[in-house]
Amino acid sequence: MLRRPKPTDSEADLLREQEKFLTSGAPSAANVVRRPDKRRGEAGGEEGGHNWENEGRPKDVVTIEDLADQLPSLTPAPPKKSRFKASRVTFEDEDAGEILDRHDTHVSAVLSRIVERDTSSTPISLPPLTGMAFPKVLHRSETSSQVPLSSAGGKKSIFARQIAAQRLKEGKTPSHCAPKAAQTPEHREQNLRPENSMDTDQCGAAVDQLTAGSGPSLLSGQGLGGPDSSGETMRIHRENQLKLQAMSQSEILQEQRKLLSQLDPRLVDFVRSRKAQSVPSSASVSKQPKVKSSKDNFPLENVSRESDSSAAAAAVLFQKPQEVEMEGEEELPPQPPAAVTEEDLLLKPQKEWVHMDKLEPEKLEWMRDLPSPRRKGTKKAMQARFDFAGSLIPPTEDLPTHLGLHHHGEEPERAGYSLQELFLLSRSQLIQQRSLALSTLANILSKARSGEYLSVLQGSVVSTLLDAGLLFLLRFALDDGVEGVITAAVHALKALLVCPEDEECLDCTFSWFRGLASFPLLPSAQEEEEEEEEGLPECMKETAKEKEDGKSDHDVARQDVVKGLLKMKLLPRLRYILEVVRPSPRVVQNVLQILTRIARHSSSSATQVLDCPRLMEMLVSEFLPISWTAPSSPLPQSVYGLPLASAMKLLRVLATSGRHACARLFNSLGVRERLPCLLSAEPSELLLEPAEALRITTEAYRLWAVAAGYGQACKLFIDLYPGLAKALQSVHRDLVHSDPLLHLQLQWVLALLSLLTQVTHTAGCHQELQAGMVSSQGEECPPPPPVSWGHVSGLQASLLGHLKGFVKSLDHPVQKDSSVAVIPAYLAYLEAYYHQLSRQNCFKPVETLQELEQLTSEVLLPLLSHHVVQGLIKNLKPSSVVCNVQSSHQGPETSPSLPGLACPGWRDRPGLVVPSSPFPLLTGLGLLLETITGIHKGLSCKFTGLLLSEPVIGYLRSCSQATPTLSHTRAWLLRHEHHLLYLLLRLAHRLVPIEPDVAKHASLYHQVALVLLPWLLPGSEYLGHELLSTIIFSKDFISEGHSGGPEAVELGELKLHEETQHRTSPSLHTVGALLREACVQLPSIRGCFLTQLAHLEPSVLTSRDALLGRNPWISSHLLPELTGPTVPSDWPFLPLVSLYERTGVSDGGGLAVEELPQGALQAVTHCLQWLLLLEVWREEALKVILPVAKLARLSCVFLCSSDLFLERPVQKLTWGLFRLLTRQSRLDSLDLNVPPPGLASFQDLYFALLTQYEAVSFGDRLFGCWVLLPLQRMYSASMRLAVFGEHVGMLRSLGVTLEQLSIPIERFTSPPEDSLPLLCLYFRSLVTGTLKPRWCPLLYVVTLSHVNSFIFSQDAAAQEVEAARHSMLRKIYYLTDEVLRNHLLLFRLPQKHSEFGFDTYKQLPPIREKRLESVLRRQDSSDDKGD
Predict the structure, then answer these.
(1) Residue 1183 · residue 1175 · CB < 8 Å
(2) 3-state DSSP call for residue 943?
(3) Alpha-carbon span 1105 to 1126, nearest angstrom
(4) DSSP labels for 623-667?
(5) d(Cα 1155, Cα 1149) in Å, to the nearest integer?
């Protein structure tokens, strides 16, 4: 018997078995059947399809000796390689002739295989006789009308379809030859027996589908192999139908579910796909009668369809939210539109159209009419859409389509374009689309910067666009080769960077005191990652420039927009646009404004503008020419060759960045030669439009004033003196109220006065510089300016006459506004004149005093008492920025990477810059009063009314309670308001010692000085130094120190002592004495704080030069970067914190007092004295410091060294401060869960205190109170866990009593403790004897209270907690220490005056006794079960 092959058999084994099989002659298990070749007339056979009839025929074989297996190549080309050669198998003994016969493709081989078909049984039909000479041409439409495609049996030729139609018409087609699809339902029913027909109303759709065809749709019978395979298939099909007819509908459904649960899901899908192929087209289905169906019959189909619809809905619901969204009201969900049908088509499809016989609704959706917009709002956020002007289009707005606002795919019913669509259009290949998209984005940016979208959009449009990559989009657009696209890109970039209202406000404040100085517009929050370099030495750390160069453009632009643009080479591209493209005037103005905004960014950005090759040379030569011709029209087609005010303003902003930049402009770029061309004649004489002439001359005066502020360009003053004198004479003549250019003329006058003020300051330094140059002996000293005091002294009389005239003009309603606008500039000039006059050798005191008295009586007092000025003073508080922190005005959009001044809409709201603001006038008047009262001390009393006026007192009172926030949007205005507050305090400093009425408000002035000091911004360090030196530590302003203040504090303490009848703390009777001693030590305290702030000396000197008009020493009018206030808000703690930073140890165990720096004890004492004084008499000044921050700062007393807190002065002062911090009102506001400024958490500091206490406290009661304070129940349990866990040893020395702590014991015991680990620690410390009443009486009472409440609690708790209660109670009952056992079981309430600090029950209350018995009984029963 033959065996089956095994996997382990080798090839030799297989060949051996094959030989056995062949010799045995056994029949094979399978026969190979070859497919017959009908063209050769062969029939299918077996054994490889051999033709046994031709087997014995001899073959003519041509034998050629040495014939190669492959034919040689006939061409000299290299042999071709066949990719199929490797797959061919050849044998050595194979006959070459057979190979040739098998592969012979000669025509004889083809002809020999042609066999005539047997047509003996085929019926012959003659063509019908017609009367036409030629056959009729077949047309596609006729063929389609004769027989439908579905009935033609699939894809057939036109001729075949026509023949089929003819046969159907003649009725000669046999039933077995007719296509299966052509049989009608009626025919199918007739072919079935009557008992096989089923009622469709009684059976479901499953039965209908199974009986729908004349035969089975899944089985063909091809695999049966018998002669009657189709008949067998029909027999099986009829048996299935009989079975289905005998079954009820429920039985059919049950069997269907059983089959579906047993069959492979892939097989089910295959069956359904075959069934779907047999279904006719949609057109034929619609013509057939509908059959009722049920959802339950086909659960899988329903599930699949529902899952598809839910997935589509999820794709809508979980779409990524749009960047800009709009709010509205609620609305019902919109109904989906009906599908497009053939009746909806305007043009009906014809049958002869190729491939148009099937309707595709999804492709015809775009032809439908737009749905009407929703008439109701919705609470769901909607995508914002804008028109071409940048206006937001409401979702309910129904705009006509001819406006071009509906050309988008998403939300076709809504007009307007979204930001995403505009981004897409801006990169289009069509020039018009790119230009239109960029112009629309520019309009959107302009409206967003002005704040028009704040009330209707969620989020910031500017931030959204920047995050989406707007900066790179605009930069790419600038590189476009089409001028229209460049124009739109420049317009959009200008709308992003430049805010016209910001520039307008800065121009309005230019003539104010230090108005030519400004803060750099640098982003305030810049993320700097320095963790990676913490361990590196200084030499290996990267510099700021190296870090900047290593960042990508995207990272730089994300933090700083201007830096990102500079990194993307914006400046060379702008130069190319101006130099080569030479665009329209509007584009030129936009480019100049962009460059101005870049120059305002920082001094480094201004330097890059100056260093850009050929940029500044081109700007000066093209837009500030020495000579020009008058423009032919008011709006010239090109501004090249004409002077532009925007170009002059750019030079002024560049000059503000530093004296070296200003010198480059005047000396290297030829600005010195161009100023006389513009200023030697009056504006009306220039060959320019009147408005442009006023603008260009105004900017020229401002640029000159900036240069004079450095002591530069003063030689021009001597050269142009006649022209300046002529201009001054025309001031009154030019200011005509009816003139439409009045605003520009006022700006021109103010710029001229600013120039004269700066030149006066520079001339006043000539004498000092001349003397310093002689005595410097080689040291660096600025050279004296060419202008001296004699060149400017003659202008004072003329300008004083102007001021008198403007003061008189206040009575005329027509001239009132103009006079109010220019008077502050005249006052600032007079201040500069008299300030510098007192430093000259030609100063004559007697004549000057008389002149000042005359000035006061004739000008200043009438001005101050005028009803117009009094009306302005009433607007002091409404116009204040400090007092109106919570203003209802909603500022415009700002981005952290692109700061601005938030000036849009400034004319419509109160503020410092509006015409009704009194700040410019009062600041100028305060400056002049500060100077003249310093020269003539007796003039101070004449201005008492200003400080005592009700508006000023109310304004100062509001300022003392205000907490302004710091940002770029407020800093530029806060700086000017700080100047006014400082000048008012300086006037009060002169009047408080000599005027009793003013001295009554000394505490108010002192309070304002205390709150003003931490408000001062960079650039105002000198003001802070003056406040510290004169007012803050002055005895005159701390009136409580010499008017019975300490005695009043002592009386209050005595009254408290009588009420409590016990000594709450050792500091109770000493606070009054400590305050009295602090008042005596005020000069020493002032010296201590000035020493602590000595590191600010360079900044103070720089600020002094700028504020006092020492122009030759000023290096830049650009103020320091706005990183925060000059002095920290917690500056009263500065000596203590700085000592801790130098000598303290963060983890406790400080240094010995001998190792402290020299004078440290005295500095700490003065610091504590000042803090005590502020806490008692100036509590409002310290309200900006959180109570937890105060506690953390004072904790440095214990962490600075090992025994500094034991020093008697420190001990007494700290006790007094602890007494003040633990008052009832202070304890309620003390939140230790808030991290103090500068610390990660208070818990970290407390752990260091615990370590220090264990190391060096020696049971000190003050240190003990400090440690016990955070253990109150309201604070975090982690601190209590630290005391009873890691630092449990300190309980032996924590002997603070209830009287010494001065904190109610209820704050430690209520509410009951709920931390199970902490309760377990409490219980362990009591049972082990770690905590005893004589060692730590306070915590002994606290732990007894919590443990007693826990074991007798009736509240429901978790099983673990309940088990712990029972365990503790049993252990307490079996304690051998009777005293502790009674304390734990009989504890009632804390009581200060009792022996142990608490009351106890005489015996256990019944409810507690019952609970104890139940716990013990349960224990006994469990023990019995265990036995």
Answers:
(1) no
(2) helix
(3) 17
(4) HS-SS-PPPSSSS-S--TTS--HHHHHHHHHHHHT-HHHHHIIII
(5) 13
Phi first, then psi: give them for residue 1276, nearest 5 degrees. Answer: -65, 140
- Among 526-530, 657-661, 1081-1085, which stretch is predicted with the lowest mean pLDDT? 526-530
3-class DSSP state for residue 898?
strand
Q: Which pLDDT tens digit goes with each residue over 1090-1101?
A: 999 999 999 999
Q: What HEC string does 684-712 produce? A: HHCCCCHHHHHHHHHHHHHHHHHHHCCCC
Residue-wise pLDDT for 1082-1135, tens only, equals 999 999 999 999 999 999 999 999 999 999 999 999 999 988 899 999 999 999
* Residue 730 confidence class, pLDDT cut points 50, 70, 90: confident
**Mean pLDDT of all residues belonging to the chain:** 81
1311: preceding bond cis by omega (within 30 degrees):
yes
Largest CA distance in the chain: 155
Does the pLDDT value for residue 1395 go beyond 80?
Answer: no
Q: Which two tokens stand for residue 1075?
A: 């305050």
Q: What is the pLDDT of residues 167-202, one digit of tens each?
A: 776 664 444 444 333 343 344 334 433 333 333 343
The DSSP letter of residue 386 is B
Pairwise CA distance, residues 1358 & 1373, whole Å? 23
How many angstroms separate the Cα of 1113 from the Cα of each of 769, 834, 1082? 10, 20, 34
Which conformational region is residue 569 in: left (phi greater than 0), alpha (psi within -120 to 50 degrees), or beta? left
CB 922 within 8 A of CB 483: no
Q: Output helix, strand, coil percentages for the chain, rounded to the nearest 5.
A: 60, 0, 40
Over 222-259, what HEC string results? CCCCCCCHHHHHHHHHHHHHHHHHHCCHHHHHHHHHHH
Strands 325-326 and 382-383: antiparallel
Tokens of 625: 């020419």
The residue with tokens 């300051």 is 761
- What's the gap between Cα 1078 and its chain centre? 49
* Tokens 């009136």 sit on residue: 1039
Return the sign of the alpha-carbon dihedral for residues 767, 768, 774, 779: negative
Tell which residue, 391, 392, 396, 393, has the closest CA to residue 377.
Answer: 396
Instruction: Encode 998-1017: b = buried (16+ Cβ within 10 Å), e = exposed.
Output: bbebbbbbbbbbbbbbbbbb
Please list the alpha-helical segments (H only) found in 1289-1405: 1298-1301, 1306-1309, 1316-1327, 1337-1351, 1359-1373, 1378-1386
Helix axes 968-991, 919-935, angle to 10 degrees: 40
Query: How many other β-carbons are positioned within 10 Å of the β-carbon of residue 584?
Result: 14
| Angle ∠(178,182,188) on CA atoms, nearest 5 | 95
DSSP H or E run through 458: strand 457-458
d(CA 614, CA 887): 47
Q: How far apart are CA 1306 and CA 1286, in angstroms?
A: 25
Mean pLDDT value of segment 924-940: 95
Q: For the chain, give the percent of residues with pLDDT over 90.
A: 48
| Cα–Cα distance measured from residue 65 to residue 63, given in angstroms and rounded to the nearest whole number | 6
Dihedral angle over CA of 1325, 1326, 1332, 1337, nearest 10: 90
Q: pTM, whole model, 2 decimals?
A: 0.75
Q: Is residue 656 pLDDT above 50, yes or no? A: yes
Which helix (DSSP H) or strand (DSSP E) does residue 1388 occupy?
A: strand 1387-1390
* Residue 180 to residues 150, 177, 213, 275, 572, Cα–Cα distance (Å): 10, 9, 9, 15, 79
Rg value, the chain, Cα: 51
By the 8 A CB rule, do 1022 and 1104 touch?
yes
